[in-house]
Amino acid sequence: MVVKRTMKQLLRNYQLYIFLFPMVAYFVIFRYFPMYGVQIAFKDFYPLKGIWDSSWVGFEHFQRFFRSSEILMVIKNTLLLNLFSLIFGFPVPIILALMINQVLRMKFKKLVQTVIYAPHFISTVVIVGMVSLFLSPRSGVVNSIIKSLGLDPVFFMARPEFFKAIYIISEIWQHAGWGTIIYLAALASISPELHESAVVDGASKWQRVWYIDIPGIMATAVILLILESGRMLSLGFEKVYLMQNNLNRSASEVISTYVYKVGIQQADFSYATAIGLFEAVICLIVLMSVNMLAKKATNTSLW
Amino acid sequence: MNVKARSRSDILFDIFNYGLLTIVLLIVLYPLYFVVIASFSNPTLVNSGQVTLIPKGINFEGYVRIFNDKMILTGYGNSLLYTALGTLISVAITIPGAYALSRRELAGRNLVMYMIVFTMFFNGGLIPTFILVKNLGLYNSFWSLILPVAVIPWNLIIARTFFQTSIPDELREAAQIDGCNEFRFFFRIALPLSSALIAIMVLFYAVGYWNTYFSALIYLKDETLYPLQLVLRNILIANTISPDMMENVEQASKQLEIASLIQYGVIIVAAFPLLILYPFLQRYFVKGVLVGSIKG
Fold first, then answer.
1. Closest chain A residue to B236 measured between Cα atoms?
2. At B205, which CATH number?
3. A43 lies in some domain
């Protein structure tokens, strides 16, 4: 009976399935098939033998990674870079959105929004290019200022101690503005009556931000926090790789850049896949723990 | 007395708020503005920090050299092609798929949705994807820049939410009673009502394709296939400017100056297509964030 009804429904909506088909095909081929390929993390992959016929080696590649002298540096860099990005980067769009939401002059509001969204669309290559131009010890603006103060120029991009700060500040500069959109949408959906009655009761602007706006966007913020922490470890690879050089490597080598070097440049496929899988699993664990914590603490969660 | 004190705190709040936002505005704007003026100012003055607010020693040597460079022109052409083709394919897969997933009648849609969302948080990783691309024969073909990233789950969720919230069920039911089938309803009624969504999808995908460099770095071997971003990477980050671009520049110090002039210039040239699109598309931005729940 149920089967019959489902069949009937399938037939009636076959046109919808035609719409769906290319997308499902895409996800099966390009997103799920690589997951099948993950098994080479437990095998010795020979391209001629293919994924299936390569021989099993168990956890050998993982053990090799855990024994390698670079693992500590790579994991430490990955965790710190992501943690600092989250701590410094996450609150900025929220604060900006709360501020923009309080602007009543529409022209100014529009101007601010137009300008701060724009950097989001600049490519990573160009952003890193701009950063290196500005920070160049010979000709950069920043060093011109330093030199005019009578100090020695600093080669920022080559100094490991500056790497994370440069990464995070340029990241905030580029994306914080765009990040406000989602919070502005959440703020716009707060009932105006709340604000009106608060005004009647004599609440100041500051109090309305604190007692109406912030609680009003809390759920959005929590969801975004979970999402961010879920893709934390894998994001930012392109930019880290572009900013990386031999001199700052001790601060800039993260798991994903390491996988690229081992896997693509040295063609050590199985080993690189194992490291990548290790990262992906940690990612998933972080996502699930944050989601669980959020559920307990605020009753908001992804699932 | 009390009311007055309160309004004074509101005035203070406003002063603080407008002041701080103005500073934010300048922080975002100034680096962009600086790149623009530095791209056609005298590089000696730029590099010694004498160009700050107005361009000085105006010359377009950097641009002349950029537009005479074959690598940049080829890269530009390639990127335009990849972006146009990729955006077309991505939008053509994402929008109908999202529409189908927005329909409650579709059996198994929650399962499909969960399968898709799962890929946002877990994937096979770099190497298995690389092996797949090689096995499919896409290595060293521009299809490797398009097909593996043809659908971005996040964009799909946005599109689905749009259909769920802005195409009322009643509309479809009425059309169905009049004998309108699914295809006809989608193309004649749903799509024309979705211009904002199409605009935002085109923008998101186009920006993604235009800005990508990493897939090109791992999948492309022939320099003639390089997209603009990979060419830019060599100029901006590896600091390798082709000797052709340095034609007629003998002195090393002069070469360095021309190099930075070219670097500022290519940033502007690379951003140009987006600068043109941006004002037209930005009114649709808010639509681009309405994300609904996965289940439903």
1. A129
2. 1.10.3720.10
3. no
